[in-house]
Amino acid sequence: MRLLLAVAVLLSLLSLEYASAEQPMLRKDVTTRLGQLENRIERGRITGELTGNELSRLRTKLEALRYRKSRLERDGMPPQGERDLDTQLYMLERETERMLNNLERK
Q1: Least confident residue range of 9-18, 57-66, 67-76
Q2: What CA dihedral angle connects 52, 86, 15 and 18, to 10 degrees?
Q3: How many angstroms separate the CA atoms of 68 and 81, rounded?
Q4: Can you give the pTM of this predicted structure?
Q5: Which of 38, 75, 83, 88 is deepest in the core (most CB within 10 A)?
């Protein structure tokens, strides 16, 4: 189980480095955070820390942020758009941690 988790994390990190190298317009910080959040959600799925509904909700919101990021990049990434994306990403990171650490469910 640990080996599978280690392989999944390693593959995710490699794909993250490749993806961030292709997208120079956006600050690496936001791109990196999206990848890290995706990895954290996947670890929550593997370890059972997330229910099916929580997993679905987080993945949907993550994909919406990725879509918004690509639209902003296409439009030249206005400063306000990047700030909004950063704020939305921060809120999703916090929501993810709340779900992963939900002691009432455990």
Answers
A1: 9-18
A2: 160
A3: 9
A4: 0.68
A5: 38
